[in-house]
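Q: What structure does this chain adopt?
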Amino acid sequence: MTTNKPKSVEYSVDINSLAVLATWYKKLVDTNNETFMPLFEDKHRYLVLKGGGGSGKSIFVGRKILERCISEPGHRFLVCRKVARTLRESCFSQLSGQLAEHYKGSGYKINKGDMKITFKNGSEILFAGLDDVEKLKSIYNITGIWIEEASEIREADFNQLDIRLRGKTAYYKQIILSFNPISIHHWLKKRFFDCENLPERDRKKIRTHESTYLDNRFLDKEARAVLEAFKYIDEYYYEVYCLGFWGITGKSVFNSRSIAERLLHIPKPKKVGYFEFDYDGKSITNIRFTEDDVDGFIRIYYEPEAGVPYVIGGDTAGEGSDSFVAQVLDNRDGRQVCTLRHTFDEDLYARQVYCLGIWYGEALVALENNYSTYPTAELERLEYPNLYVRETVDDYTHKTKHAFGFITNKKTRPMIISELIKAVRENISLINDRTTLEEMQTFVRNEDFRPEAEEGAHDDCIMALAIAHYIRPKQRYTVISPRTMIEWTDSMWEDYRNASKSEREYLREKWGEPN
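A:
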């Protein structure tokens, strides 16, 4: 966090004094929750704060606005809610109290009648409800906006506010939105959270943040006890309004309480990025993982271990889906070790899966073939060495046929979902990916009791994970001793790629497993 601008501690002393800056920073740390500290210097145009009640997100927003008004002269902040009359007892009262508690010497004046706060450096804070059209028309030269309870407003209201953020200032302009996620169908989710398809320049304007009452160290025991009691009184209320999960309407297929608890303890990915490789039109070589926290679409939770068996299930983008997904499991226990989720052309998806499979020790790979067989055919063309083979019976000859890839139909869909439900019920800690768990929260039974994604939600990650669990028996469960693994030469690899399946098995026995 930078400290190169004047701050609000003792305004009559030299603002460049290191002692003053140290005092200011210590006070800021001592009076704020750790989860929000990095956001004081965040400069994204849209700072979107999703969270449960009691998380302290509104208190943080108030502090950031006051810090900026005091240290950056000439600001005109607009604070708004859907209904004007709700502002006086919420945002206006909060900011007035924060000024009295933390900024006594900052030279501010509070006009209770007009609900306006002014500062001696020319900054001011205005308050207006979106139902007060005439007052909004008279507000101009806005340099910053806070929308409290943003889930109450329409997207059209937000667009009008976005247009008004055009005041003249030497400092960055920002709209801060704070809200409880009352519905998975809300425009806020689509616009700021499900924005993979936005151009990069637009995605870079957004920063989202999630918090719960568990992040608030200033919450007293009584208030905490009240919130936690909802676990047993109203589980749905607890998940949405206390833990800040998106609201749903159907009956969840998976145990929602277990998922909610797991979401509080999931690990951060060890690496985020994508694969780069050399490609000559026929073969992929020189595979390397490139870390990229911004544009990366592969999340690695556990890196590959030599000799460990892995499986990969894939869901290709089709009807009702907008992403290609691959789920990697450690086949010894079914633990989720890596996820891939992105919008691709089919050939690019196949090549990333090829690299992912090789990276994870030539994992057994099964991609869904319902809407397109191209990704599986591309893996076959690239001679991926370990594709899942399904058995089908020819309707005419009644002979058993073999084909690569997985088909989801009326028979296999209930089977793979049931297997996944069982795996999650027995050990939810096997799931490490947030997006996967959030999809499980919105995977519900419809009126016909058929499991499916809630309207407006997705099931890409669920179906890929279900396929991965289903094919586990086709992969070994034991670790191959590293002593039997050797470095193959280029000529050995060439012979292996040109060999048939039975010949490949012979070569692996003869030469040993490739490292």
